[in-house]
Design a protein that fits this description.
By secondary structure, this protein is an alpha/beta fold. It has 3 domains: 59 residues, OB fold (Dihydrolipoamide Acetyltransferase, E2P); 155 residues, 3-Layer(aba) Sandwich (Rossmann fold), CATH 3.40.50; 51 residues, Orthogonal Bundle (Ribonucleotide Reductase Protein R1, domain 1), CATH 1.10.40.50. The protein has 8 helices and 13 strands. The radius of gyration is 21 Å and the shape is globular. The structure holds guanosine-5'-diphosphate (GDP), magnesium ion (MG) and zinc ion (ZN). Zinc ion binds next to helix 7.
Amino acid sequence: MGKSSDLLGGLIVASFGRQYLVETADGRLLPCTTYGKKGGAVCGDRVTVLPTSADQGVIETIEPRRSLFYRASEAREKLIAANVTQVVIVVAAVPSFYEELLNRCLVAAEVAEVKVLIVLNKADLTAETAAAAETLALYAGLGYPVLQLSAHGDVSALRARLAGETSVLVGQSGMGKTSLINALVPDAGARTAEVSAKLDSGRHTTTHARLYHLDASSDLIDSPGLQEFGLGHADRNQIERAFPEFRPFLGHCKFNDCRHATEPGCAVQQAVAGGHISQRRYDIFQRIIKPHLVTRG
Ligand SMILES: Nc1nc2c(ncn2[C@@H]2O[C@H](COP(=O)(O)OP(=O)(O)O)[C@@H](O)[C@H]2O)c(=O)[nH]1
Ligand SMILES: [Mg+2]
Ligand SMILES: [Zn+2]
């Protein structure tokens, strides 16, 4: 442990397993590690670091987070980004996206109390995109902002929505997250090369989170492609409430602990039958909630 006068404030702008790159208050990029076996720090974290040499430091403390976006499978938490104000879920028609994964991201954003934006990328592939847009119309109708664009074209509508926010791009790999970063951050390639050189791990550059400054008040985090999104950290009530169209019906079922599955007098099932809740969303809800029915959340 160093004297507190040796400590520097900083921001984690890249994470590579247990190795981090910290942007210090004086503008340097300092490779850092953490004490102990477990990291616990994540891209977007504000930290204090103790420099141990001219080009190496140790993370001493992680400042309290405004938000934490993460997934959890069984007992293991997988942190994605800290202190974000917005989750940007990137989907595309090609390769096709998993609607359940989109929904899991929406639930996680709700649990993290962070707003969301859905981006339908690759709009230049017009025929395929029309079908995907139809799928997403359901979400637009529920109040989620949906932006259709091409990373290879005009991204100004997205840039406008990123202003003043710390946003994290999430989605399956191949949806175009890195392409969007490249469109939004003119020197992204050079910065990635700088990070690779600092951490001597060029082969890892696209498999871990990276934070880019868009301007003085806007940051954008690129995250590794997702194949699954565990919601082990969310309880049943949180998941139910993360489906906004369910809310008017919650608390109106015959049984207090209704699982909205096969119970009689279920207000949610009646809402599905009455067309107030879409069958698609209800089916996805049932799949998401399944592991949460074993232990009462
Ligand atoms: N046609 C088209 N292809 C795109 C667009 N954005 C990305 N791609 C392509 O999709 C592939 C995956 O993009 P990438 O940015 O690596 O996706 P990531 O895995 O989400 O980071 C690459 O071949 C990109 O060139 C787009 O707007 N239109
Ligand atoms: Mg990528
Ligand atoms: Zn019910």
